[in-house]
Design goal:
Structural class: mainly alpha
Number of helices: 1
Radius of gyration: 41 Å
Helix content: over 70%
Largest sheet: none
Strand content: under 5%
Order of helices and strands: H
Shape: rod-shaped
Oligomer: single chain
Length: about 100
C-alpha cells in the first residue's frame, strides 16, 4: 500500500516549471513588443513635431531675412534720394 505514487495527470514538477517559464517568457515578449511599439510612436511624434516646428521656424527666418533685405534696400534708396534731392536743391540755390 505504501508503494502508490501520487497521480499528477502526466505533469512532472519539472514540466510545470518549464510551462511557467515559457508563460513568463511569452508575457515578457508581449510587454517588450508593446513598449517597443510605444517607443516608436513617441519617436515618430517627436520627429513630426520637430519637422513641423523646424518648417515653421524656417519660414519665419526666411521671411525675416527677406524683410531685412527689403528694409535695407529701402533705407539705402531713401538715403540716395535724400542726398540726391539735397544736392539738387543746394546746387539749384547756388545758381
Amino acid at each position: 500500500m505504501n508503494n502508490v505514487e501520487p497521480i499528477n495527470n502526466g505533469f512532472s514538477p519539472d514540466s510545470k516549471k518549464q510551462d511557467a517559464i515559457e508563460a513568463q517568457d511569452e508575457r515578457n515578449r508581449v510587454i517588450n513588443e508593446r513598449s517597443r511599439a510605444q517607443t516608436m510612436r513617441i519617436m515618430l511624434g517627436v520627429l513630426i513635431t520637430v519637422s513641423v516646428l523646424g518648417g515653421i521656424s524656417y519660414i519665419f527666418i526666411r521671411t525675416a531675412v527677406i524683410l531685412t533685405i527689403f528694409a535695407l534696400a529701402t533705407a539705402l534708396t531713401n538715403l540716395y534720394f535724400y542726398v540726391w534731392i539735397g544736392t539738387t536743391v543746394y546746387y539749384n540755390r547756388k545758381l
